[in-house]
Amino acid sequence: MGFWSLLEVASMPVIQVLIISLVGAFLASDRCKLFPVEARNSMNKVVFVLFAPALMFANLAQTVTLEDIISWWFMPVNMGLTFLIGGLLGWMVVKILKPPPYLEGLIVATCSSGNMGNLPIILVPAICDEDKSPFGNRSVCRTVGLSYASFSMALGGFYIWTYTFRLIKGSAMKIKAMEEAEKPAIRSSNSDLEADHKTHLLDAPEDEEKEVVKEDTGFWRKVADFLHEILEELLAPPTLGAIIGFVFGAVKWLRNLIIGDDAPLRIIQSTAKLLGDGTIPCMTIILGGNLIKGLRSSAVKPMVVLGIVCVRYILLPIIGIGIVLTAASLGFLPADPLFQYVLMLQFTLPPAMNIGTMTQLYNVAQDECSVLMLWTYLIAILALTVWSTIFLHLLV
């Protein structure tokens, strides 16, 4: 498969994202005025509550069985490593460049969270369909490749709606805390200013006991708050959809209820798939709608864009090659080179589109997110092609 053929295959899904983004930008422009901020916020809530959970459920229930989870056990590990290593590299970018505090979570998120969804779903089967595909029989390659990509998409959604969701939420809370700190503090006057020195001495031991109790209460309160946050993230609609999808995919009798031409409740799966198909177009249009304002008022500096590009398209792919080849040499991976290609590809993808949904949801750095997405997806056209060529030469 030649470089130019691979360039065409790799660029198609990225160009689709860019075209839909331009449609969203036009709808939100001053000339059109059909997609104002209020409309984008409302659509974003629908994506978060309805479309994204439906997509997670439909893909997991249909493509993931218990046997797949066991035989493809390294894929969740590999994806976790992309988020972990990308997060560490993103944290280094933040420490070196020192961006505004509200951008820190966004930078770490774009460095760590790749688009595990629509890009592999389009890219992997397209490579299989090529006449000179190195992965053997076209129909077998396409079926197996689509299963790998679907599993990657489902796992990616789970990681993104837990780990990345927490990052963006943390940025929003940081901004809120800064705004609260800037407000003039209103303190009540001390009601016992006229109390004599003797009274304070007598009350001292009791006050110390109260402080100890408060410290103990504070520790357990922090533990309870942490567990509550974890529960909230697990109960976020997309994460809940992924969990339910995992259960239906792994439990055979539940799977037979909704999957298959003879399944009695197959209408549930088809309805979920129909709703889920609206997720990616809606997210991309919202992202494009934020792009106009972002290009005018964004605080993203060129060095921040360069840092994210270096992490996503230089450092992560090199690290990914080392991890996958090492795992293969240790016998952790199936012999199928297509599986190894998908694992390497996970280290090379542009940032996840869901990040835009999260920034819109918490009203934090939406404009900057759109600008970062624009540049990273433009560069992804060449980066995906070059790295895919390298991966294929290494594996085949």
Automatic annotation (TrEMBL):
Q: Which membrane topology describes this protein?
A: Multi-pass membrane protein
Q: Which residues cross the membrane?
A: 6-27, 47-66, 72-94, 106-127, 147-168, 304-332, 338-362, 374-395
Ordered alphabetically, the record's keywords are:
Auxin signaling pathway, Endoplasmic reticulum, Membrane, Transmembrane, Transmembrane helix, Transport
The organism's place on the tree of life at top rank: Eukaryota
Q: What would be one Gene Ontology cellular-component term for the protein? A: endoplasmic reticulum membrane
Q: What is the annotated localization of this protein? A: Endoplasmic reticulum membrane
Gene Ontology BP term (one): auxin-activated signaling pathway
Q: Name one Pfam family in it.
A: Mem_trans
Q: What does this protein do?
A: Involved in cellular auxin homeostasis by regulating auxin metabolism. Regulates intracellular auxin accumulation at the endoplasmic reticulum and thus auxin availability for nuclear auxin signaling.
Q: Which family does it belong to?
A: Belongs to the auxin efflux carrier (TC 2.A.69.2) family.
Would you tell me the protein name for this molecule? Protein PIN-LIKES 5
Protein's organism: Cardamine amara subsp. amara
